[in-house]
Amino acid sequence: DDTLAAALEALAADVARSAGRLVVDERPDAVEVAATKSTATDVVTAMDQASQDHLLSRLREARPDDAVMGEEDGGAAGTSGITWVVDPIDGTVNYLYGIPAYAVSVAAVVGDPTQHGGWRPFAAAVYNPVTDELYRARSGGGAFLVVGDEQAPLVPTSCDSLGQALVATGFGYAAERRERQGRLLLDLLPQVRDIRRAGSAALDLCAVAAGRVDAYYETGLNPWDLAGGWLVAHEAGAVVGGLDGPGESLTWACAPGLRTKFAEVVEVGTRTHLEG
Ligand code: IPD
Fold first, then answer.
1. What does the pLDDT look like over 126-149, one tens digit per residue?
2. Nearest CA owner, ligand 1 atom 12
3. d(CA 89, ligand 1 centre) in Å
4. Cα gap 89→71, rounded to integer Å
């Protein structure tokens, strides 16, 4: 119900902020790569793990019966039917280089986030600790940007032409997937205003919500990359597609006026280049 969703949204905002402060305040001058994951370019820093440990202990303390699933090692099973899907630093490569576009993403979801299509976020917060921008949303409650004491509703752009659309995207870490993603991008690039690759899927989805880009798409995201930003975009009134979790599956969001044109071009492109 809405009282529970509102409480979980407030908790998501609180823990995302405190993890974000930790990540930015304790950022060493020279960030080091602690380990690599799927490929040599898929890096993890000590702060990814520290932020996740912080999120896990705060969430377990407040909600001991909920499950927690995060990008880094750890996680916990639960009995309540609610899972917290967390990305301790989304935009790790930006964090490594000191580019101020990374975020902590925290979402409460129902269903099993490991099952394609079988889950849905209902309360979430995405926090960029460098700009101190907090994006928050809950199902049916709208989406808001909070900066300091100021809070404003998030509204996508009124763009209705693909040729005028500024489109954000991102790429995975595996070379073979990147090559396919590059082919899809090659199809799209001549048809749109321009492309942005900002480096954080969570912030890209929030950028659609905030009208900072007109649309976003990416294939192969993990639940923690997209859960928080997906709900923010959806509640802001953007049209969103894809909630499938790992694989080659497509996640997209766009201004309402682009609905049919954008969905068609990215869905056809994904079928042609990524699933073919
Ligand atoms: C990555 C970022 C990036 C996206 C990648 C993600 P990470 O997450 O969201 O923008 O293109 O697909 O893996 O590794 O920084 O948490």
1. 999 999 999 999 999 999 999 999
2. 172
3. 9
4. 9
